[in-house]
Structure formats: C-alpha cells, structure tokens
Amino acid sequence: MGWIRLDDRFAEHRKITAISDGELRVHVNAMCFTARQQDPLITPGALRILGATRKQVNHLVDVGLWDAHDDGWV
To answer: Which of 5, 29, 40, 46 stands the most exposed, by the fewest C-beta atoms within 10 Å?
Structure first.
C-alpha cells in the first residue's frame, strides 16, 4: 500500500486554487495512483482510471501541477 503526504496548507497553494473541484479530484487521484504504482508517469491509458478528461489534464499542465512528457504526464 502506498501513501501520500499533503501539507496542511495544500488547498491554499496558488496552483491548487487555480483549478476546479473536478481537476482537484483528478490531481489527488493521480497522486494516489502514482504512489500505488511507484512510478510518476501517468499514461494516456490511465486517464480513464483517474476519471480525467484531456481538457482537465491540459489545465493541470497550464497551471504547472503536471508536466507533459512524450509518454504522458508527470
């Protein structure tokens, strides 16, 4: 079982306040997913598992929470 740790001011960070509730859910799901997989890469195939749309992912990249890579996102 993997674990993630969040700072108690996580929800107040400027990158987090810039996203929607749905995007926040995707981001937290992705943190849990990558901790469980022990791999930071989120592949396009994993988006369905995370409940993510490409529009949400693009916004997470735009605000600087995710980085785009050739094989997916970190």
So the answer is: 5
